[in-house]
Amino acid sequence: MAQPSQPPPDLNAPPRLRRPDRQQLLVQPRTLDELVPADHPVRALWALVQRWDLTLFLQGIRARGERPGRAATDPQLLIALWLYATIEGIGCGRQLARLCIESDPYKWLRGGVSLNYHTLNDFRVGHQDALDELFTATLGRLVHGGLVSVTRISQDGLRVRASAGTGSFRTRPTLEKCLADAEAHLADLKKRRDSPANEGGNGNDGGGEDGGGNGNDLHAALAADRLDRVKAALAEVAKVEAAKEKSHDKKRELPARASTTDPESRVMKMPNGGYNPAFNVQLASDPESRAIVGVMVSSSGVDSPLSEVMRQQVEQRTGGKVSEHMIDGGYVNLDAIDTAAASEVTLYMPVPKPNKNAKVQDRYARREDDSDAVAAWRARMSSEAAKEIYKDRASTSETINADLRTFRGMSPFAVRGIAKAACVALWSALVYNIMSFSPALT
């Protein structure tokens, strides 16, 4: 049957439009548990965290029993939040606090517990020993299950930009002048705060509305912090001077310097060829399973003294024995080769090309002053078998470094000091292992 024809629209009439009405009342009753589906990864992460022994995280909590005071936030919750945030490449407490309000997975984890970015940031970098023990415990579970071995390990260093400017590095004379200025400034502030004329407080000297002189207290606290950082920089510049005395580097004649922003950082050569304040993050891994088995943060601008320390750490974490150690040319150190041989460790490390003025141009030939261990290393690295084994180092360490730098927060540090930088590195390594072995850890 033919449809009746519609009259043409009256183009002079006003158009009929569907417009939003945001005053409509919505009723959506649901629990927080319904925010994420049953198969969401955040549920598996929470189940994993609940299985861990977090005794060390609980030791510092002062809210106990029926004593007055606010209850502490459960470390399980804070650990789960930072693990999930690190999985998603988030390393900022403010951003995480915002996601806890806006994002369903984070709201599900939070479970209605109020949080602020201070609590989140302080927890992330405030439990180095407990976090280190947690990393060791998860690694031990993998080793005990036969999934990870430390018989052969691969090690590499990752320079991560520190939270300090190049201009904050000063020589000893400048630091001593800064120290005198900081002490004088702090003494002046304390004198002004304690003077009878300041008892009432006023707007000019920063007093609060209650006349308590809160502004002066704040200025004094900032001045005291500045003084502490200058003192720390002087202590660090002494370490740099001592290291230069032992070094054979051509740059040893340059004056030692330390940063007043992050005294423990050092100016290092970066992957792009430039020089910036940074920390040297050392990672050891199992080339077979690709698990991270060692994490260390150092102020050393060179890798050569760090190979033995890493082996000791890996053996202490796992209870295993490192028999073969793959490292790159930056670790070449003849004393380290002798030490490794004494510990019955076989090093796979490239032999550098000889200087053009050297008597022997064959890099693999024994030198007159070579020890037996060094001569054996040269001969070993000339073999095709050793070269084939060494190929695993780049395919393991370099890809792990790239993953942590790109996705797990090992970009420029937003924290200061080796201890806090080590915490960030441990979070990244822990997440990497969890994502690689999550079924085995549950």
In terms of topology, how is this protein built?
Layout: H1 41-50, H2 55-58, H3 75-87, H4 93-102, H5 104-110, H6 117-125, H7 128-144, E1 152-161, E2 169-171, H8 172-194, H9 214-246, E3 257-259, E4 266-269, E5 275-285, E6 292-298, H10 307-318, E7 324-326, H11 334-342, E8 346-348, H12 372-381, H13 384-407, H14 418-441
Parallel strand pairs: 1-7, 7-8
Antiparallel strand pairs: 1-5, 2-3, 4-5, 5-6
Helix pairs in contact: 1-3, 3-14, 4-5, 4-6, 7-14, 8-9, 11-12
What is this structure, in a nutshell?
This protein is of the alpha/beta class and 442 residues long.
Separate helix tally: 14
- What's the β-strand tally? 8
Average pLDDT score: 88
> Shape from CA axes?
globular
What is the CATH topology classification name of the largest domain? Nucleotidyltransferase, domain 5
Terminal Cα span = 67 Å
Main sheet overview: 6 strands, mixed
What is the architecture of the largest domain at the second tier of CATH?
2-Layer Sandwich
Provide the structure class: alpha/beta
Name the poorly predicted regions.
Answer: 203-212
Q: SSE order, as H and E?
A: HHHHHHHEEHHEEEEHEHEHHH
Determine the fraction of residues in helical runs and give it as a percent range: 40-55%
